[in-house]
Amino acid sequence: MDKLIIKGGNRLSGTLPISGAKNSALTLIPCALLTEEPVTLRNLPRLADIDGFQHLMTQFGVAHSIPGKRPEEFGRVVTQEATRITSNVAPYDLVRKMRASILVLGPLLARTGEATVSLPGGCAIGNRPIDLHLKALEALGAEIELAEGYVKARAPAAGLPGGEYDFPIVSVGATENAVMAAVLAKGTSRIGNAAREPEIVDLCRLLVAMGAKIEGIGSSELVIRGVKKLYGATYKVMADRIEAGSYACAAAITGGEVFLEGANGEEMDATTNALRAIGVEVEAQEDGVHVRANGPLKGVDLSTAPYPGLATDMQAQLMSLLTKAGGTSVLTETIFENRYMHVPELRRMGADIEVSGRTAIVKGVDRLTGAEVMATDLRASMSLIIAALAAAGETQVRRIYHLDRGYERLEEKLALVGADIERVGDD
Ligand SMILES: CC(=O)N[C@H]1[C@@H](OP(=O)(O)OP(=O)(O)OC[C@H]2O[C@@H](n3ccc(=O)[nH]c3=O)[C@H](O)[C@@H]2O)O[C@H](CO)[C@@H](O)[C@@H]1O
Ligand SMILES: C=C(OP(=O)(O)O)C(=O)O
Question: Active site at which residues (predicted)?
């Protein structure tokens, strides 16, 4: 297993390219199941999760090709073609490694009338049930059965009729599954209290490019008129707002100045507002976001919330930044029940953080020190790297396979802006 060795203290400066969004790509890829025509995605990030999802897609008979010959630098172009679905079963072995695999349920059901998908199970950040995915699909007319660790979903012989569902709480994944199932339904569907995350907008835009009829895109009420058939399309995956926010925190904690090339300022408004409140200068430009930390960092109170609120996927990284901010900060995590796994590791680096239930109280310290730490999940891993960049001495981050799920060429990008970071084989 690899580990990262980071020597802290370098001020980050320069241009940092932002990749395609993992969480968008993971819902755009299964859209290829909805049509027999080729769907080409541009700007796909090179990530373990994307490779894993593409592997899952081959299970259903989806063919992949890379059109043209271009160097695979940042961002890939991949065409998927599901001329014929050869299986509608997603087995445990492929699903357990990646929770987002549940996103094949809606499209498989819509295209073939049946889908059998392994229950994904919990993960480090929380329990993460899928009850809302199933309730929404039932409301659209599916029959659902749970047996032997699998979800078996079936549509009536004539296809899903479509229907109405109001989510009791906002769920990104369940909204995505419902939208992907509704686009090929016989009738019209209405999804209330839908998630409004930019990744959902990206999903709807691809589906519209494929011929879907969706109203209310970007709002919490989606009305979807089912169509008989969807067509092929070519679509560019949006920039990763969480990757961009993570690197903004990394630059800020070093007192640095970076240009996040390709980032979309509007989509990361809540993060940029938090950074500004902390005392970091952030300017959204047409082709990216400029970040400059030029003065003392101030403690703030932050609470995560569904979009347009502050993303839970940014909580750990902002907490790292706040360990060096003056005064006391209070962070409240409202989305996942166990998303403070980074706290004990940050404490090992000298941070002063107390957790009580959903709240973390962070008292700024003058100095963080390098230590051997363990990554526990994707964003927790990034928070340790952010702290390491500002810590005195050397930090070793183990279990970095979590990072490879969501940060494309992390050490290359950070080195590009001056970080002293190296990936070595673990002993
Ligand atoms: C691949 C992907 O896009 N992952 C993102 C997606 O995850 P994901 O789609 O899994 O997250 P959800 O929005 O569904 O989860 C929000 C909350 O709803 C709960 N819930 C969800 C579904 C359900 O059927 N029942 C239920 O109770 C969850 O446990 C959680 O407490 O949105 C999260 C919230 O922004 C992000 O942190 C993840 O990075
Ligand atoms: C929690 C995350 O991802 P996933 O839903 O894929 O586990 C994340 O991206 O921070």
Answer: 123 (proton donor)
